[in-house]
């Protein structure tokens, strides 16, 4: 759990230190570092679920599973580019779920390469947001 928040906390601390060090123009530094912390935090992503629950839900509704981890710039890019469609996916944080991490390693020759998107039982490493959007079942 703490590992997910390490990078955001470091960004906030760095922003505060920069704001204190440069007292007359430190506020923009603080704002920039707080924004970076927000982008790299688990709060940026829809609520993560366990890999077993994601597989169960995906089997029922046909939605892809996205394995991700905080601080991954490719995961952030995918999340931002998907916009509201991101909520229609099943997200699994591999730093919080050992089963999810094991599944990603099995799909990537032992590497924890994310984002790994699993659709119809097949893993796809770092797919484009448009491709992921195309894998979503039609909205009801």
TrEMBL record:
Keywords: Membrane, Transmembrane, Transmembrane helix. The keyword Cell division does not apply. Residues 66-122 form the Glutaredoxin domain. It comes from the Bacteria. It holds the Pfam family Glutaredoxin. InterPro entries: Glutaredoxin, Thioredoxin-like_sf. The chain crosses the membrane at residues 29-50. The keyword Membrane applies. This is Mycoredoxin. It comes from Nonomuraea jiangxiensis.
């Amino acid at each position: 759990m703490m590992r997910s928040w390490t990078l955001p906390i470091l960004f906030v601390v760095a922003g505060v230190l920069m704001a204190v060090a440069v007292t007359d123009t430190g506020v923009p530094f603080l704002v920039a570092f707080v924004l970076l912390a927000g982008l790299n935090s688990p709060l940026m992503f829809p609520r993560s679920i366990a890999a077993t629950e994601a597989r169960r839900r995906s089997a029922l509704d046909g939605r892809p599973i996205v394995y991700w981890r905080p601080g991954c710039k490719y995961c952030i890019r995918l999340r931002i580019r998907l916009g509201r469609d991101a909520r229609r996916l099943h997200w699994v944080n591999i730093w919080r779920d050992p089963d999810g991490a094991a599944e990603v390693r099995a799909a990537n020759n032992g590497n924890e390469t994310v984002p790994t998107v699993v659709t119809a039982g097949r893993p796809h490493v770092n797919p484009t947001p448009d491709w992921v959007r195309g894998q979503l079942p039609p909205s009801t």
